[in-house]
Amino acid sequence: MTDRLGDLTAAGVAVWLDDLSRVRLSSGGLDRLRREQHVAGVTTNPTIFAKALSDADEYNWQLKDLATRGIEVEEAVRMLTTYDVRWACDVMRPSYDGSAGVDGRVSIEVDPRVAHDTDKTVAEAKALWWLVDRPNLFIKIPATEEGLAAITATLAEGISVNVTLIFGLDRYSAVMEAFLAGLEQAKANGHDLSTIGSVASFFVSRVDSEIDKRLDKIGSAEAKALRGKAAVANAQLAYERYTEVFSSDRWQALADAGAHPQRPLWASTSTKNPDYRDVIYVEELIAPGTVNTMPESVVTAYAEHGETRGDTITGAYDAARQVFADLAGVGIDVDDVIATLEREGVEKFEASWSELLDGVRKSLAAAARGTGAPNEAAKGNAEAAQRAGGNA
């Protein structure tokens, strides 16, 4: 049989799973994906946790204990989610050890409601790092303007970071600058740079969703011909910037001190438009030193019919630039698209987080009353969270 995910891994793309639940952990499903499907990391977000906590009876014992202790809802959410992430870190530890700390990472996000508060973001990152207490953890920090300083400060503490919600090229360049500054400060603070990891999560399908909507509104033949081209082109140009930064003398000085590069991670790689090939955001974004985080449906689809055609990014820069020139030519304001996506991205995760809190609040109340099946109370909230946040 053709090992398509193995071919993808051999081409330099780390396959990560964009999902986590206690059922997946207790059933051994995550470990099977690691052993049999080349899955080498895990990402989570508030929407994923809202769904996980609503679907499984396996959380009931912990909810009952938390309710008995009178734990407040926000702390209960932290206890529930960090329990799963700590377990997932242990499951993925062989990948971490086997890759010298590059892969085998599991991400947990700071409260998205503090995305525009640098100090609170850093404080929560430190608290999560302490709570999970595993070297293969990533703390997810949104790439808002305020988040940039938090990224630097968190890395300077020796804490590994997954920078999330990146949509635009200029913000991506600022993220890489924040990463370099953070490692330089970490080195000055006496931290071992070889233990600090980072990825920059560049969102893909949402770019097509927003731009396609605007192209449809324009309605011309030239506009319609550009549908489904922007997201891949945007990510390809991001990789060009990555290669420039991580071939610089500044980076080399950090590499000589043991640092690993901040890999670009392609997030939001499930296609939102059924007219597009279901693995397009994997096949068209293959290059060495990248990560692609996928829901299990995309992992399965690639295993069944994905095509690894070698590097599909490096030779595409000029064509990608032409896509953006053509978009400007038909009247698409890409800067406005990026600003809209960042604002909506934070808002969607805030909405998902609020739904998660509300669902856990109801579950705790049900557990305290002893009415059984407390997770039933959270299912409606989880469905609403999915609608609000969607996949990463």
UniProtKB/TrEMBL annotation:
Gene3D superfamilies assigned: Aldolase class I
Cited PROSITE patterns: TRANSALDOLASE_1
InterPro entries linked: Aldolase_TIM, TAL/FSA, Transaldolase_2, Transaldolase_AS
GO cellular component entries: cytoplasm
Signal peptide: none
Family: Belongs to the transaldolase family. Type 2 subfamily.
Name of this protein: Transaldolase
Lineage of origin: Bacteria, Bacillati, Actinomycetota, Actinomycetes, Micromonosporales
Gene encoding the protein: tal
